[in-house]
Amino acid sequence: MASILAVDDSASMRQMVAFTLKGAGYEVIEAVDGVDALNKAKGKSINVVLTDVNMPNMDGITLIKELRKLPNYKFTPMLMLTTESSMDKKSEGKSAGATGWLVKPFNPDQLLGTIKKVIG
Amino acid sequence: MEIENQSETHSMMNTDLDLNAEQFLSFYLAGEEYGVDILRVQEIKCWENATEVPNSPDYLKGVINLRGTIVPVIDMRQRFGIEAIEYTKTTVVIVLKVEDADRERTVGFIVDAVSDVYTIESELLRAPPETGDSIDLGFVKGLTSINEKMVVLLDIDHLLDEEKISESQNLH
Amino acid sequence: MSIDMSQFHQVFFEESFEGLDIMETGLMDLDLGAANDEEINTIFRAAHSIKGGAGTFGFTDISSFTHVMETLLDEMRDGCREVTREAVDLLLASIDCLREMLSAVDAGDEIDQVRKDSLQKDLESLLANGSGDSKPQSVQQTVESSKDETTSQGIWKITFAPHPNLFKTGNDPVRIFRELKTLGVLTSIVDISKLPSYFELDPEESYLTWEMKLDSECSEAEIDEVFAWVDEECELTISKLTEQVIIDDSPEEEITVVATEEKTEIEKQDSVKPVVARKKTNKKAGSENSSIRVGIDKIDALINMVGELVITQSMLSQISENFVESDLEKLRDGIDELERNTRELQENVMQIRMLPISFSFNRFPRLVRDMASKLGKNIELKMSGEQTELDKTVMEKIGDPLVHLVRNSLDHGIEMPDVRKAAGKPEVGTLQLNAYHEGGNIVIEIVDDGAGLNKERILSKARENGLVGEDEILPDEKIHELIFAPGFSTAAEVSDVSGRGVSMDVVMRNIRDLGGVVEIKSEEGKGSTFTIRLPLTLAILDGQLIRVGDHVYIIPLVSIVESLQVESENCNSLAGKAELYKLREEYISIIRLHKAFNITPDSTELTKGLLVVAESEGQKVGIFVDDLLAQQQVVIKSLETNYQKVDGISGATILGDGTVAMILDMTGLVHLSRNNPVAISNSQSLITEEAVA
After folding, report:
1. Distant-in-sequence, close-in-space partners of C470: CB < 8 Å, separation ≥ 6
2. CATH topology for C154-252?
3. pLDDT digits 0-9 by tens, C665-683
4. What is the pTM of this model?
5. ipTM of the complex
6. Parallel, antiparallel, or unpaired for β C619-625 and B140-146?
7. Which of B64, B122, C178, C216 keeps 20 to 30 A from C320, CA to CA?
8. Three-class SS of residue A6?
9. Is C642 tagged catalytic?
10. For the domain with range C6-128, which CATH number is right: 1.10.3720.10, 1.20.120.160, 3.40.1390.30, 3.40.50.300?
């Protein structure tokens, strides 16, 4: 069963994402910001990282950069949650090593579709 | 008439209920037998002392502690205007879920003794006749006969009706 | 798969309200002109979260409104826009509007479109007259794309040459092929020419290139979408074999954005309607919600305590099994241990409902700021003891009374700057809010250095309203307390700002309902101090057990002044009906509990019993009882749940022996005995009558 790390400082978003993904049979680990996510990633083997960009303590892009430094996460798919208005965040994310992105707001089906693209 | 006589009176029955039949718990009060809808019976307790509530009607014996909740207890004899007696070993409190205008309340009713559980087909219930008697008929759902004895089926939700109480007291 | 999103709405609303609070505090703390980037970022993030959530859950009005705020904040945090007072004020007003919108949506009501549109226009025009450099506007606009979206059957030729580090972003050509396959029939030829020898091969790099043919009905845009993520990490050509079209793979906005934008717009329309048409939930705007945040350490402590309780319990069970007399000592120890465990557990559980009063105090900086500017006064707010904890429900209920008292100080207490100057006071008035624990209570002080209560005015108003006799002389505290009397405030006193239908007597009543008291200390010309004393929790009461005949009642300890033996020479009667007791310098009325409750006491002779002097509504009364029993903490149980309100009784409790005991309500008791011709209301007026008699 694939495990997904969902990172977002908004509880309602985290809940929605976790609920959707769990319902589809994925294991979901939640984190409230980059620091929390980094700790949880180190302790577990995760298949996909889904992270918001704007978060306190450590933002999404820095998180991706830090994760890529870990040997286990060199090739792990990492997706950013971006808003359509932040184009520059996408290239910044890509330079940091992000695999791709999911545009906010999205609905559960879009989320599942994207995850499926990445895990299969 | 078909009756199912259950020997265990203290538990809630889970028999196949005929849709047209109702189950009643019956009890004795001054030699008469009465029945209440078994679905409203929460439990049956032995009588223990109740704490008086100041300035309450005399049929309100007081309140008791029911596993942490305060529950008022009503003496049925006094409620019906029948002479009160000393409580005996068979005196019990039937704890009922009463539906008031806006909420559900838990109320205990003191009766002489519990009798049985009966299943009565609805069509066999008779409406109460017009009488000028001591019992106000507003809380009587119907009458039925069991083993040639009359059983009065009570409408619990009206037992606490204030108006009816004063009316019935006027009838004395 | 359809998911019911409404299950997340509650959390979204809660966190959004919190976010708005963060924004508000942040904005108020901003140093205009020297704003800290991190501070602005925090405010921005809060707005961003609300916008994101609103969009996801289909609240488009909220989302679009917040978007404009977010844009403004974005410019500020990037340094492109100065943080001006105008901007801050506008944002603060927008926060208020957002609060209202969120509450409306939560309750299933219509939002105030007029207010929203007007504020949005203001925000937008502020954005347009940007101060400073303009930033590429991140306004939602559909983007023109150079990609073709027409669909028709055809064979597409795709060459895909990923850059060597494609894998390092977690991408994988295999996924791309899988996706292409969903569009049609895919064939491919791989070019391994770039592949180095085995020993030089770096397994983490990509060396392969593919030439593919896709037989499909899809549009070019759809093929492009498959490569959206790897756009910059590969050389890509897509051409239809029937026509040659050169595509530039410079990263421009994706068509996917447009496509999904349109799709989500439509979905949003549908989802907004169900939100509005939802059944109205019984929710009061922002004040009470039924959940509480608890630190996990508190929960862990609880779990430990319950563990210990279980151990003690099993130990006691063991002792009781095959009990012999020699085990008595062990049994006693066990019971002591049980008492310790239970007490600890109780204290900790009560702790859970405790929240710092800052939750309530936090609204005041804004309130004082707004009111001061509205009134044209200069007022500084000082707060202390914000971390003082109290029960969540008590805090929610004390909120409105606090607001009213603060408004009162600001409106009637603190004077206009010129008046202050003339009086030799600093132009800036000070309002202090203090909170601290004392005894088993929380004390809240509202202190102002304003004009103080005007005794003359109060007395004359009270005389006008018949509350005080024409010639009556009252001590200062009594005069001050008159402002809490029902019927005191009249139109003249009520100003637009402080008198919104909540008068001082309601404040007093609310505080009393919480089991608390309020005291006033005031000096004309110097200022006033309102002191509120509240019990720390609502559910537990420190009580004094008393006995009348066979009946045991409980008097709240906080109401008891003293207890004494009755001396017959101090007993007096008035007009043969009322009974009074001379307690040092004053006369207090005696309440015979046995008469009020129609019960049989040990004796009806006052000297054979005791008098418990209690306070009710600022007056002292003497309750005649047979005996004083123990003092103990009791848990308040409702009498009304299954029965009804009883005059003179505030609730019931369960004593150690399992029986029920009634808790006396002082105020109700006084009224009760008023109806039985025994007690009299105003003991003070008796002084004059006594003098006459």
Report:
1. C463
2. Alpha-Beta Plaits (3.30.70)
3. 887 888 777 665 333 333 3
4. 0.53
5. 0.86
6. unpaired
7. B64
8. strand
9. no
10. 1.20.120.160
